[in-house]
Amino acid sequence: xxxxxxxxxxxxxxxxxxxxxxxxxxxxxxxxxxxxxxxxxxxxxxxxxxxxxxxxxxxxxxxxxxxxxxxxxxxxxxxxxxxxxxxxxxxxxxxxxxxxxxxxxxxxxxxxxxxxxxxxxxxxxxxxxxxxxxxxxxxxxxxxxxxxxxxxxxxxxxxxxxxxxxxxxxxxxxxxxxxxxxxxxxxxxxxxxxxxxxxxxxxxxxxxxxxxxxxxxxxxxxxxxxxxxxxxxxxxxxxxxxxxxxxxxxxxxxxxxxxxxxxxxxxxxxxxxxxxxxxxxxxxxxxxxxxxxxxxxxxxxxxxxxxxxxxxxxxxxxxxxxxxxxxxxxxxxxxxxxxxxxxxxxxxxxxxxxxxxxxxxxxxxxxxxxxxxxxxxxxxxxxxxxxxxxx
Length: 391
Hints:
Layout: H1 10-13, E1 14-17, E2 22-24, E3 34-35, E4 41-42, H2 44-57, H3 64-71, E5 90-93, H4 115-121, H5 142-150, E6 159-162, H6 171-182, E7 189-194, E8 212-217, H7 222-229, H8 236-246, E9 252-260, H9 268-278, E10 290-293, H10 307-321, H11 328-342, H12 350-367, H13 371-374, H14 379-390
């Protein structure tokens, strides 16, 4: 199918269930190939149409996230599905939007804690990602979930993935794990994206599975961690305590996952240093875990920040990098990632800059926070924007 530079087998080997019940071939595909609601299932015509698009054009509009990341030299979801296949071997669930965090790059479809803030912000901002207006659930009942699992040949499933909201708050995760256990399919590779800040008893169902990866989300250190995550009660110190507990499970491997937005730009080397120090068994990116630039929504992407500021952040981080006591291989990888994440040679979009500032200041006002307290480097940019607005 296609050539090796653009091939993607996700439509054939992967199924992702979203919080609204829609089914997609991967987690960044913008569209659906069916629904698990009311017993609908996968629409084969949509799969065939997608495959024809990939075959004839190498890419389709709904797949633009991967191509944008690859253009920057970053991790691409497409690379996960590079092996040929015809059976569903990747099964991913986003059971619910239930989440106790309200991260700044998130939205109400992925975090129920965002609902109130989004409603207030929508009164003055017309560019936000639309809100579902309520808690989202992919399956209305346990029976509906079991019915969907029955429709999958789970003996062929090699990778079972749980995302959010916060999956460790979803009862459906336990139900799914018990289903696989009862079918004697405990050799499946499990991956779970989590904030890491959840009650310890939620970990018990994983004890029956020898191959479990917990992907811990982190995008900043110190007070910046709390600023990004949505409040002071979610601190880097409490994350450290949770990590200490997770490390006591011999079957759980810990990987870091960093979705980088402009909020992290002047903190990148500190972030990488924290990752290397606290998650030493990271198997990705020379010990730095999974790291990629956020491209959607665009108002929290690199295109929102002036090129001059991104170049400044690049040089500031390079200077900090010289003082780190880490391996040469890791230093080289950090050097490469700085170029990928900060895109210092890419132009910015003035409209996106305005939206980034409006969005950030609106959130700050709602949450009683100030960007200048954690990212003082952006204060001149904000002041200049406010002066122009007043003219």
